[in-house]
Amino acid sequence: MSAPTLVTVDDVRAAADRLRGSIMRTPLIPAPWADPQRPLWIKPESLQVIGAFKVRGALNAIGRIDPDVRTRGVVAYSSGNHAQAVAYAAARFGIDAHIVMPEETPAVKVARTREHGARVVLCGAGRREAVAAQLVEETGATLVPPFDHPDVIAGQGTIGLEIAEDLPDVGTVLIPVSGGGLASGIGTAIRALCPDARIYGVEPELAADTAAGLRRGSRVSMSIEDRNRTIADGLRSQPSELTFAHLQHVLTDVLTVSEGQIRSAVAELAIRARLVSEPSGAVALAAYRHHRLPPGKTVIILSGGNIEADLLAQIVAQSPEVGVHQGN
Fold it and tell me: Which pLDDT score, from 0 to 100, does residue 131 have?
């Protein structure tokens, strides 16, 4: 079997041209309270219109579908953020969207997906791909996968282009990893434009299949039951053959963080940075706080901010950050 063809920085540049004017060019926000030996900037993709980075890949992929085919609509499967992104992008193109979501998806993500006009089909754990395939057959619509597609990867990679333009001497970039499309795309851009930078993927200890796979040199499978234990519901997927090949090529390493560290990072972002982050979006800050990283300018990707209000309130109320902040 031949190796997958990797996305190039030229593919990412083409995606950036395609997306110009359709997405927010998110800023790099300095974190003055961070370690002065590792100056920190936050890339808040939570500020995108659907609350997460996924809108980049969805718009790029749907924009690349032949217009005559695109009129039949699109199908996607996702635990939430890709669902919202495809629903939003489909509405922008004036086409139907059929979105398959697991029954355990947070209600806020299901509601926001429907708000964009999509038809949502809920399914049991481990059934997303099968139900999506059935919908494709029934409707003739085009499948837009959450990460396993070069156009999706290239769209997510536009984040890396922006980082390289705004902070060309970046030393370390920390990126949440699940299916691997985000890290594949950003890593492709950073590796090409900032070749001396260290690029770390970050995932929960309870869903650390990528870390295990890179150590072994081949993909490692974890059961859905094991992966569903983490609070980071957006990081429960596993890399595909395509994304794993990218991760092997672009990542320096993969770091893991505990459930408590993820919760603390959500609270720190809310209290110190005044940014709302879902648990999946906060893992990069957790790694910054709890791993011994080299000195130098560091960027973390806050990948999404779609969190239930009650969960955010609970995490913030239980955090030591509350007392520290009130005492300043």
Answer: 94
- C-beta of residue 241 within 8 angstroms of C-beta of residue 11: no
Choose the catalytic residue: 54, 78, 109, 264: 54
Write the pLDDT tens digit of every residue in 229-264.
999 988 888 899 999 999 999 999 999 999 999 999
On whether residue 4 sits in a domain, the answer given is: no
162 and 282, same structural domain?
yes
**In angstroms, what CA-CA distances link 320 with 146, 261, 292, 304?**
35, 12, 22, 23
The single-letter DSSP state of residue 6 is P
Q: Which of 78, 79, 184, 303 is catalytic?
A: 303
Residue 280 is assigned to a structural domain of this protein: yes
Cβ–Cβ under 8 Å, residues 57 and 125: no
Answer whether residue 269 is part of any domain. Answer: yes
CATH number at residue 214: 3.40.50.1100
Sequence-ordered list of residues with C-beta below 8 angstroms from that of 210, at least 6 positions apart, any chain? 177, 180, 201, 203, 238, 239, 244, 247, 254
Residue range 110-168, pLDDT digits in tens: 888 899 999 999 988 778 899 999 999 999 999 999 999 999 999 999 999 999 999 99
Query: Are 177 and 317 within one domain?
Result: yes
Q: Are residues 74 and 18 in the same domain?
A: no
Whether residue 22 lies in the annotated active site: no
Confirm whether 303 is a catalytic residue.
Answer: yes
Question: Where in the sequence is the domain holding 63, given as residue range(s)?
Answer: 55-143
Q: Is residue 18 part of a domain?
A: yes
Of residues 126 and 199, more confidence is placed in 199
Tokens of residue 157, six digits: 């990679």
